[in-house]
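Exercise 7. Given the encoded structure of a 192-residue chain, write a plausible sequence.
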């Protein structure tokens, strides 16, 4: 009976700890959105303590992107990507999206296109998971890169792919509205 109480107490404490740690991670994400980078950095130690160093590195990379330190973000994320032994699971597509975005911002167009294409190879697994948002965001990013690079037919193809997956998306979502505007621009470019 004492063993059962002890096990139950440990389980409750573990659940509380996991909840608090997940809350810290969410708070770090919100701090980044609010550009409260000192607060986000303060939460990294707690996140690393409970989720491991890699979780802290992910937050550091997101801070770097928010501060337009794209090279730093790539340097933080690439070791995680390179050591990943299961490239079609987990956060892999998120990391690749963030690296491709950073490469694009650094005007490394060919690298960004290549990174997007690697990320999109996992579509058959991700389409039913929460990670599918990063699949969709990668398609949108690739369309943006192609448009920026003057590759209109490729941009249009990625735009069409985006709408194939998000044909039932709720109106008003910023990414959806951005892609509608891009689709309109690309259609007008094709007419000329």
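Solution.
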């Amino acid at each position: 009976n004492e063993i059962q109480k002890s096990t139950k107490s440990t389980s409750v404490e573990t659940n509380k700890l996991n909840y608090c740690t997940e809350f810290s991670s969410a708070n770090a994400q919100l701090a980044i959105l609010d550009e409260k980078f000192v607060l986000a950095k303060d939460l990294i130690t707690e996140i690393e303590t409970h989720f491991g160093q890699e979780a802290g590195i992910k937050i550091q990379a997101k801070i770097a992107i928010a501060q337009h330190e794209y090279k730093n973000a790539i340097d933080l994320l690439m070791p995680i990507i390179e050591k990943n032994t299961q490239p079609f699971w987990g956060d892999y597509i998120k990391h690749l999206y963030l690296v491709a975005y950073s490469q694009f911002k650094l005007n490394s167009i060919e690298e960004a296109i290549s990174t997007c294409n690697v990320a999109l190879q996992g579509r058959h697994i991700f389409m039913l998971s929460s990670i599918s948002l990063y699949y969709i965001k990668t398609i949108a990013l690739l369309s943006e890169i192609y448009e920026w690079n003057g590759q209109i037919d490729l941009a249009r193809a990625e735009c069409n792919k985006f709408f194939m997956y998000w044909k039932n998306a709720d109106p008003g979502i910023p990414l959806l509205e951005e892609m509608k505007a891009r689709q309109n621009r690309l259609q007008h470019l094709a007419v000329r």
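Remark. Residues 12 and 18 are 10 Å apart (CA to CA). Students should compare their own answers with the one above.
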